Amino acid sequence: MNLGNSPSLAPQYMAMIPPDKLSEIQTKYLEDLGKLGKDPSALEFKDRRFMGEAWQNPWSKALVSTYLLNARYLNELVQAVQTDTKTRQRIEFATNQMIDALSPSNFLATNPEALETILKTQGQSIQKGILNLLGDLGKGKVSQTDESGFEVGKNLAQTEGAVVFRNSLFELIQYKPLTDQVYERPFLMVPPCINKYYILDLQPDNSVVRYMVSQGHTVFLVSWKNPDASMNRITWEDYVGTGVLEAIRVTQEISQQDKINILGFCVGGTLVSTALAVLAVRKQDPIESLTLLTTLLDFTDTGILDVFIDESLVNLREKSIGGAEGRYGLLSGLELANTFSFLRPNELVWNYVVDNYLKGNSPPPFDLLYWNGDSTNLPGPMYCWYLRHTYLQNDLAKPGKLKVCGEKIDLSKIKVPAYIYASRDDHIVPWHSGYQSTQILKGPIRFVMGASGHIAGVINPPHKKKRNYWTNSDLPKTADAWLKGAKEVPGSWWPDFTEWLAQYGGKQIPAPKNYGHGKYKKLVAAPGTYVKEKAQKV
């Protein structure tokens, strides 16, 4: 969901620091700087980047202490700025990007660990680091994992199944049952079109798909096509109509069920909710239950992503790739991936700069980071519609404001039972914004908040016995009020979800022995063809 541009401080925004506050901050800074001049250990700073033994020499300690003091000083200045909220967010974002980039750990001459590595390897680390850098320059991104260690369909996306339908936007995968009996109503999963579906089917021990199949659900899953130049005029309506609505129809026909259960993840959840709002206007009722994972419906507060969005950016994108002046194009998946990485630069950028280039190491294989780097493009018109009508104008949350697939939609007309999940530390979909969906949808709702972030919070298999989650059957108006009354539960939220979903699965029936039904036959084995397509250069 990037946004494809760095945030800019437009000249119409006014920002200032009151003179008395500025004087107070400066005085305190000079006092602390004087203390450090006498004793580098006078002020206690803790930062995991500098905890290694090599950093404990006097020169490095003095350098690090001064850097961290300066970082604190700059952040105090930012917090003292008197301006509107969005301008402060932008100033804070730009300041922290600069602070993180200028860390002593990021430079060979000031990183004692990197210098020690040079001595230990007799200079080989420099050679390897240069080769790593040259390789990444060719790829246009900092390597986060050993990409040679994975192949989709071999050691990723391994759950057995078959593609049973394909159109210009997606392949529909049906998975083989793992139980003799299954719930009669199938379970359709719609992942985000911004990334590939196999985040839900990484490896057998952390696969959401495999877990749901093992719980007796007949799982269908949408695998979006990676857009190429021929798709540069595809719109949000196409993703709703030719995408989600068509997937619902085909799943109904194959399962021979009037109603199905459906899940949407991130942007997939926004697409699913839009589709259900269209169906509500048409008085069609094919959905028994709705599940939303880390999904925004109300875009009032989008967290750090808000710093990228304003009228000038959206207007520029509409004119360049959105068709506003007859120019159509694609948003580069590489651009998306790089922007997301810079939302957490120390963890997803500078950590690898130091390790790959300064120390000459190669990143280890990690399935989640491989998926993160397996980018997808986005059609310009679809992307621009999404930016304007959600992030910029929040039109989706306004009843009757938008017309999609020929219908004026109102999300409050969605009255099916819903399970809404949000992650506590999510920097892409802030959990309190995910909670706002409970105030929009009108069916019976269960809201659950899990620990960790946007992806790690979702991919939390029970057998690992990691993390925790919070539940509260009451749904007050505010997220903070919900949290005050919430109960903390150890472990994964997956069993809580499958217990909830079971009541909407219908009766148990013998598991199907074949893929598809009627005119819908097995086309190719899962994971299909679309998921293997690499993003074309834009």
Salient structural properties:
two-stranded antiparallel sheet; disordered N terminus; 17 strands; single chain; alpha/beta; eleven-stranded mixed beta sheet; about 550 residues
Structural notes for this entry:
Helix content is 37%, strand content 13%. With 538 residues, the chain is α/β, with parallel strands linked by helices. It has an eleven-stranded mixed β-sheet with strand order 15-14-13-12-7-6-4-5-2-1-17, sandwiched between helices. The protein has a two-stranded antiparallel sheet with strand order 3-16. It has a two-stranded antiparallel ribbon with strand order 8-9. Strand 1 and strand 2 form a beta hairpin. Helix 2 (58-80) packs antiparallel against helix 3. It is globular, with a radius of gyration of 25 Å. The protein starts with 18 loop residues before the first helix and ends in a 13-residue tail after the last strand. The model is unreliable at 1-12 (pLDDT under 50).
